[in-house]
Amino acid sequence: PPSVAKPQETSVLHFTKQQSSNHNPSSICRTDLATLTLLLFSALAVLLTYSNQSSAFPPGDAPAPEAPMIAEASDEAKNQIQTFKVPDNFTVDVFAAEPLVANPVAFFVDYHGNFYVCESFRQNRGVTDNRQHNRAWVDDDLAAQSVDDRIRYHKKHLGDKISEYTRYDDQIRLIRDSNGDGQADSAKVFANQFNQIEDGTAAGVLARNGNVYLTCIPHLWLLRDNDGNNQAEQRESLHNGYGVRVAFRGHDSHGLILGPDNRLYFSIGDRGYNIKTDGKHFKNPQSGAVFRCDLDGSNLEVFATGLRNPQELAFDQFGNLFTGDNNSDSGDRARWVYVVEGGDTGWRMEYQYLSDRGPFNREKIWHPYNEDTPAYIIPPIRNFADGPSGLVFYPGTGLGPEFDNRFLLCDFRGGPANSGIRSFKLEPNGASYKMVDDQQPFWKILATDLAFGADGTLYVSDWVNGWNGLGKGRIYSFTTTNEQARTEGEDTERFLTSDLTEMSDENLVKFLRHKDQRVRQESHLELAGRNSLKHLVFVASESDHQLARLHSMWGLLVIARENIDQRPAVIDQLTELSDDGDAEIRALSARLLGELNADSASDQLVSMLQDDSLRVRHLAATALSYLRAEESIMPLMNAIDENNNVDPVLRHGLILALAANASDTHLVELAAKASPAQRLAIVVALRRQQSDQLAALLLDPTPAVVREAARAIHDLPITNALPQLAALISSPTPDDALMRRVLNANFQLGTSENADRIAQFASRNDITDSLQIEALSMLGDWTEPASRDRVLGAWRPLDERDAEIGRTAFINHLAGILEGSNAVRDHAIKIAASLNIKQIGPVLYAVLTNDAATAVQQSSALASLGIIKDTRHSELVNTSLESRHPLVRATARDQLISIDVTAATKQLARAVRSDNTIERQLAYNSLSKINNSVSEAVMLDALNRLQQKGIPDDTLLDVRLAAASHPSKIVNEQIDRLRSRIPSDKLAAQYMDTLAGGNMSRGRSIFFERTQVSCVRCHKIEGRGGDVGPDLSKIATDKDPKYLMEAIVTPNSATAKGFDSVQIIDANGLVHAGVIRKQTEDAVELVTAEGKRIAIARDDIDVMQKAKSPMPEDLIKHLSARDIRDLVAFLRSLKPNSTE
User: What's 4-486's CATH class?
Assistant: First the structure.
């Protein structure tokens, strides 16, 4: 681990002294090059200034935090450069590294080279994650409706430990290069003490005109340094109420960006929001969203919703907004999203806690548009990347023409070996876009964010490794060697750093044609600030330069929004432009006319619904949603019919307008004579209105319409329409999405009639097994229904009900239920036993005596006979001791304990020496329940044999666990003595008894479904899962059980081939970085980032440092020893010819 120093102790001499006193041949080169490196760092230190003084006005009443622990200066950052994969025509330099910067989450570079860096020191120690807590905690999180609710349940669950949530803080560091040599030489804490219990990660920052905006849950902060001391004396919360829930770490408020309309845009992950401001109330605790507001925080709007974690936002040259949205760790893929105004992309945070993620997976919400896509969502453009974070659109100068019109997206995967920056373009695709030409220009860097300097230099923040922060951090500069591109960037910098107030209107107009998006935007904003209507109108109407015209139009919008007396003239000009020959001009004119509530343009907007461009149609429809234009209703209906569900973005705009202009009664009247596409749109419009009238569409002849109506009624919910939804159970269909909601409507209503309907449904033979099993489970849960909704996972508590209602319904339809498939029948038997339905006894007897029944079926039947206290239970237990199935025999011994403990103990004493694994394992588990001398003696004998290595490998864990939980203190003490011999610092050694004997099926469930460990988040098996880590489809081909266990317990001791990155410093001081492909006694062979193979003689290796695995090191906190054994068993099965 790095040596660390408190920031306020950092000084010029401290760097040099520490490096000298800590000299270690294993970590510092012996060569002249290494000495030169130290001298360079010392020289840098001479110019260094740094301060960690607290800001003058810390928010809230939390105690002062501890100083952050930050690593000292070293040559790591510079050495790391050689591991990067970059284009041949780029150079990379360290702009800043620890101790100047640490744990950088996000940063902003202003035009004068001031770097505002969000640094987080609260990850996993103040900023928590639901995966670290138990079900009761998650229940309270799902129930939370406000930030105050979250604070209350934190205090309830944490008790005295709540103080840990205020012990550390997040901060903004202000970093500068004061002498222009390309390296930062000063760093000062601009604002800190963001350490309230309710505070999230400081995850988004933007500086403009002396204002510094910070997104840090639960606030949008406005910070100002009024006295020029580089610290924020003024703190103002513009809004409060972001982050109702905990959800997952990193799902914070972030993404600050200035729009071309001079408004702040920003995002939040699925921690939700409940905000009251300007007399308005915005509440959605279950979804991520994109917001916008004016620069003073006023006029807040929810721009789009349904996102999971849209970390960053970017506008293209036409003012379209995009984001990358993270996946849910269930085999789904991250999403590249066109952020459409009023759009809902379909994610709800409660889905995370359903093992299969509920509708998100079942209903293909995360997939690009297809025939199954729910009609209420905006589907992603493409499934892309794994950990989308930092995002920018190339402004146009500084890097070269190969980056023109390209997005750059950080793909954060927890470790540098498989992380970096992706690049791609978008092309029009109807009213939306498609992704083309995706590349990985800058790779093998754990990038969190990226930004362009005024001269177009690309700066990238590096988290270094892992998920929690190492007290290290870097900002690298990526510079092209293309001289022309650099010259263009320098010209851009001169403009952006100049005093625009001194520039004439005529000169500013010229810069509206500039190559760089920032120059164009600053020009139109300056002209708008001067109210230069004449110049902007002239360019918008007369220029031959498309982008200059678009920027002039944005300038007109800014004028009209800030000067109401100018609004009519602007509306007239925009109306005129709506007939322009350029589709982008028409599209923007429509967008802006809507935002200005231009009622006078309604006829023109209606005519634009027939424009040749689908993009124009979409934005014209969106504009109509701002107005109250009843004359638009039939044209909208016609446009919906013409689209016929082909383009989902166009459909969305049309529905927005329809919902805004037609009443719910009118919509239902229209449905009577509408086409299927029109009726589907009407359903979504009614959904947006949250209208009870949705019930009328449940009887529609088109299945898609009925399904969409059911989604709306159930999911919102529309409580008054639940009875009509529940009534559909009498006409079941194979439509899973529909019938799950129909069943659940009956379950929620909870009357005896509803219970009978559910039982009758379970008895049908014309529906799927999964739906029958769900119906049976509802009857089993009837008395004490879970507070989490069965379809959505949302917190919807139901009152306890009369147990007899569920039992009676089950009994009335028992015969039909038992005619189902084996899977249905098996589940029915378990539910009947849990309800103490004695009528199931003969069925259980028949299963137990049926030679064709499986071991699992017979074992379950025997246990169920005991639950219902069947009169034949004792007799059947004794006969089952002679079953041909080991599992049945083991179950019989366990059941015998409650009948004749002495006989059971004798049986178990023999079973522990059985040749069968299952019998041995379950025998020890049963013995742990018996408190007598024979049981104690058997366990002590087992522990003695354990020391002598006389216990089979597949039963070692069972002996250990049985001894630990046995009623005998002598047995407990003996296992404690044996375990104490295992070195406490050898974690893997403590789990050597998990290498054999696991249950492959249970291991598979853990891998794919256990949220707390999320194996499938990073690893893929046979095409299902993420690409962050290695594909495990054939992991057992060359990996033994010990390796597999260590990879779970101590991931940094076992990294799969191809993901084991190292950095080697040779005897000449040269740095070699890459992935190990081969090691011998004489040499190490690496594959570099460029794909070259190099061999380095071991005698020439001075230092070889292994990169940390991105796999979380605390997985075992969420796994029992049995879980680990089962996971190992599952992974052992993954060979080329396995069934997985």
Answer: mainly beta
